[in-house]
Amino acid sequence: MSVELVEVVRSGFRECVHRGSVVVLDAGGTPELELGEVHGPIFPRSTNKPMQALTLLRNGFEPVDDDELAITTASHFGEPDHVALVRRLLDRFGHTPADLACPPDLPFEDRARAAALTGAGPSPLYMNCSGKHAAMLATCAINDWPRTGYLDVDHPLQQAVLATIADVTGEPETDLGIDGCGLPIVPVSLINLARAFAGFTTAETGTASRRIADAVRANPRVISGTKGPDLLAMAATPGLFCKIGADGVHAGALPDGRAFAYKIDDGHDRARMPLTLAILRRLGVEWSDAHTELAAPAVLGGDARVGVIRAIPGVL
Length: 316
Description:
The protein has 316 residues and is α+β, with helices and mostly antiparallel strands. Helix content is 38%, strand content 20%. It is built from twelve helices and twelve strands. The protein has helices at residues 49-58, 66-72, 80-92, 110-117, 130-143, 156-169, 190-202, 208-218, 220-223, 229-236, 272-282, 289-295; strands at 3-10, 13-25, 31-35, 41-42, 177-178, 184-185, 188-189, 241-245, 249-253, 259-264, 298-301, 304-311. Strands 1, 2, 3, 8, 9, 10, 11 and 12 form an eight-stranded antiparallel beta sheet that branches. It has a two-stranded antiparallel ribbon with strand order 4-7. A two-stranded antiparallel ribbon has the order 5-6. A hairpin with a 2-residue loop joins strand 1 and strand 2. Helix 1 packs parallel to helix 5, helix 1 crosses helix 8 (208-218) and helix 2 crosses helix 8. The radius of gyration is 19 Å and the shape is globular.
């Protein structure tokens, strides 16, 4: 059963509460905190992107630089630099935006969204998963797999993804769902999701897993965007490797293998940063003014700060 994790306080009044489940692991992979249901399956949403990227590297995909590897794991905001990386990846393997099977979308970032609305409108290039889809098309080309139908669970690429996720999470075979971008999604428990992320940061230098962690840490803007949660968290916390997922999922790990994963029941984004920062404090990261600011976003009344969004004191 989930527990109360984050509260919204306005003018001294507890206005809202966000419930959820969270697991925190020590460097040896042993849980030092379990709140709520951490052993049952959730849909990890975009926190599964590093595992999907690992599948591509294991099957011959070779990015030209860390930027390209990072966009492969991204939930990007559709900003010009993001779109340029996706286009570059498509062009390199003879694909076009029409080959992307993710749905058309508008950029998440405000200025990029406004530009798209006055331009050509929605495009699969802007969809936050387009980097992953472009890299999947590239991997199909490399292996001479069909480039149409790559969303289907029976496609060789998706079978390889399922095998990789089973390998790194140890999760038993189970029924699949469909993610927002149309790809199959594998249910994973929070505890095994956290352990999977720890495996990326503790892998040997130069291995596929470590390459992914290093590329993400070196390019947090590429995997998110302006003021994105992952960008802010990693910029404030050297060595942190983390990835958000839709509907309130977040997972991350430090270089020594200390790790976390959580799911907010109502999926509300405003609960994300206070909870992530409370977890980082518990993990003992060196605290800074940037952490303090992220840990307690303001509740506004007009232009005045009248309250706070915070992890519930004493819960973590």
